[in-house]
Amino acid sequence: MQLTYQRQELTTQITYGQTLVQSIGKMLPTVRHVIILTNQRYYDQFFEKVQRAFFHNNIDWYICRNQLYCNHLEELTEFLQFLNRFSRANEYLFIAFGNEGVIQLTGFLQQTSLFAAKFWVIATSGRSFFSALSENCTICKEPYNDLLQQKNLPECLFLDQTIVQQQIDEKLLDLQLLIKTGLVSDYSFLQRLFKSFPTRKQLQQSSFIAFVEDAIQLHQHYASIIASYGTTFEKAFYLTENGHLLSAHMKRLLGLLLQLFWNLELNDVTFQIKNFMLWLKKLGYLLELPATLSVGEYLEQVLTLQKEKSMLVLSDIGEIGYRQVADERTVINAIERYQKIISEI
Fold this sequence. Notes:
Elements: E1 2-7, E2 10-16, H1 20-24, E3 33-39, H2 40-53, E4 59-64, H3 73-83, E5 91-97, H4 100-112, E6 116-122, H5 126-131, E7 136-142, E8 145-151, E9 156-159, H6 161-164, H7 171-185, H8 187-196, H9 200-205, H10 209-228, H11 231-238, H12 248-266, H13 273-283, H14 295-305, E10 311-316, E11 319-324, H15 328-344
Parallel strand pairs: 2-9, 3-4, 3-5, 5-6, 6-9
Antiparallel strand pairs: 1-2, 7-8, 10-11
Protein name: 3-dehydroquinate synthase
Organism: Tetragenococcus muriaticus 3MR10-3
């Protein structure tokens, strides 16, 4: 299936429901030199499959770190050094085949480099697929410190289920992104997820493909808002002592949930938050804050970070409201309520 996706003046041709070779087909420009940016794990797992899809082209690979925020200044510098071996007289195709950091790094590079290059994305997961639909391509100094940003979307975006479905251990992470999409922009979408994936077993046995088209439409309207929800609370973990005890993905999940709880302090809607948290626990998400994490220090970091940019408040679940600067009391109440519910489920 093919869809045209648009964000402001930027457009992307999305192809999904086919294998990679079928999807690329006649779209591949044979005269362009292909440079693929990926993470080590995806290079190891899919090198031969991707090579076969581009057998008509000259191909070079650049291997990024596996970390979530590999779109950092050091990686950017190293890639620019890698490009020094290539002639600017040639035409190139930069392809992002990796995690969210690889998508952002490639989109930024294609927009700012002096090379004549197109920008494509081959999704390795649901998260990388939807990350490619957000036009803000950022380079950071640290995960909590954005330095540079360019607006860019890939010319072509491919979702090959035979690649994505092999990432069984990442299904929880992909579902997390879909849950976030529903929380921020469409409550009925969230309800469908709840009915379709009530337990971890059903999640592991099922595909997300039935949700792709609706999620694409939601991102077309709200991609940057969806992407930013929870990021202030997430980034505060990187600045808090013992925050390293949480993985990058756990920081992201807890950041989302704590902004939701803060949101509920401002708009105490009828959402059954305890049932929602129980569902997340049944699915297998780790929800506890580390016992050695200083809540006081974490609170201070949240308040400091949000001075730079106020946070989104949902007027209701699935309904985008307004932006507001948080105060100490509402954040404390949100954290205390979160910990109380975690202790009860």
